[in-house]
Amino acid sequence: MSLALTGCMGGGGSIPSASAPITQTESQQGAEAHPKLLAEFGGRMTGVHADYVERVGKNIAVQSGLGNAREDFTVSLVNSSVNNAFAIPGGYIYTTRQLVGLMNNEAELAAVLGHEVGHVAARHSQRRQQAAQRNSILGVLGAIASGVLLGDSGIGDTLSRGFLQGSQLLTLRFSRSQELEADELGIRYLTNAGYDPQAMSTVLRSLALQNSLDAQLQGRNATIPEWASTHPDPASRVSTASQKARGLSGTVTNRDTFLSGIDGLLYGDDPAQGVIEGQRFIHPELGFSFTSPNGFYMVNGTRAVSINGDGGQAQLTIARYDGNLETYVRSVFSALGGNQQQLTPSSLQRTTVNGLPAVYGTARVNTGQRTVDVAVFAYELAPDRAYHFQAITPSGRMSTFTPMFNSMRRITSAEASAVIPRRIDVVTVGRGDTVATLARRMAYDRAQVERFRVLNGLGANDTLQAGQKVKIVVRAR
């Protein structure tokens, strides 16, 4: 159904020179899934940034050879802080605003969207579903949107897939050969459109560097991107894409046009979805905050926040609430068990956390490979609204999350109003400006230089020239 471009790479494969027009069945599939997918990824953005992305996407789609490509393709900029791009049958292609903010010219944007067009043109979703005899596209999307983390596959299978990665990160996997085929098709589309075909390798390089920096800041392993843990690291794709583009014509990058087109774009977490600041998560609109344990990192999705570390994984999310916290917790356990096994807490305990009514329970489960503890800790924030952590650790280790469970609290109006979003600000390098001086303007309290270099595709030894345009990230007051 979809892919995380940032984690894909493949082996060989035959490259079709032209593709059959999008069928009525494919159009119907995509039209049914489209609104659900938009909701899962923060909604479709509108305005000048979205219009620019759509225009570039439709222009590159024409190069696919699909009939009426400009009219048949739907290109969406989605409001997500995850570096991701994906496609579904029927000509629906998507990129997150975060991924666009990482790019440095129009050719790179065309490369990412061209990769997605390639998946549609080569019918990768359909071929993948047929080969694996998977659920229908809507069935897969329904499982993603529902937020059922363990589902029918059972707890043991969920552990092997990476428990509680966050709903935005669950995307249908393409094969390695399909990923390379989409890369190669994207490079072909770039060349035909007159763009620099090396843009595929440069955007992949930026993705690899961003993944490495994120891992460094979060204290985790950099070899596997969090947005696509089952896919190859984008770093392994850089040289392959560069080799494929070598000797091909095309020089257009439209760097200044691109930077003008994304100036002011929201970057990082949207306060409407809550924000992560270090170890703290704060949601100004819903009015609560919590702190993750030391040594863990968080990933913010539109429906949930995941907390990941070597000692366990957890997620804060929401379920249907009828005013009874005990019933709420039992229903969450039941959903986690899915159809494979009955999952019930050994007991339920009622307590109060920072003035919030709360109920928690735990269950010990033998997955066949190991014994784990599963906990659900729920809080009532209003008579008709409750939230809960669901967590999993090796047996006897659930105390790892106790400080986090006890940190949940309401925030004041002053705390809520102090949450200000970040945005891309395109500036012109002045005489005397350096990487260091411009990096100090980045709206972060650490790794300013490293963030600035990755954001602008600069190597460790690259310098700036007066008159050059670069991106910084600032608070949007």
Give an overview in words.
This protein has 3 domains: 5-134 and 172-266, no CATH class; 271-417, Mog1/PsbP, alpha/beta/alpha sandwich (Protein Transport Mog1p, Chain A, 3-Layer(aba) Sandwich), CATH 3.40.1000.10; 420-475, Membrane-bound Lytic Murein Transglycosylase D, Chain A (Roll), CATH 3.10.350. Helix 10 (199-218) packs antiparallel against helix 11 (235-245) and helix 10 packs antiparallel against helix 17. The strands form 4 sheets. The chain has a 7-stranded antiparallel sheet, with helices on one face. Strands 5-6-7-15 form a 4-stranded antiparallel sheet. Helix content is 37%, strand content 21%. The relative contact order is 0.12. The chain has 17 helices and 17 strands. Strand 5 (275-277) and strand 6 form a beta hairpin. It is an alpha+beta fold and 477 residues long.
Query: Averaging pLDDT over every residue, what do you get?
Result: 83
Largest sheet features: 7 strands, antiparallel
Secondary structure tally: strands:
17
Approximate strand percentage:
15-25%
**Low-pLDDT sequence parts:** 1-14, 130-172, 222-232
Strand line-up in the sheet with most strands: 8-9-10-14-13-12-11
* Intertermini distance: 38 Å
State the shape.
Answer: globular
Structural class: alpha+beta
Which range best describes the helical content: under 10%, 10-25%, 25-40%, 40-55%, 55-70% or over 70%? Answer: 25-40%
Spatial extent as radius of gyration: 23 Å
Number of domains: 3
By DSSP (H or I, 4+ residues per run), the number of helices equals 17
Protein name: LysM domain-containing protein
Pfam families: LysM, Peptidase_M48
Keywords: Hydrolase, Metal-binding, Metalloprotease, Protease, Zinc
Cofactor: Zn(2+)
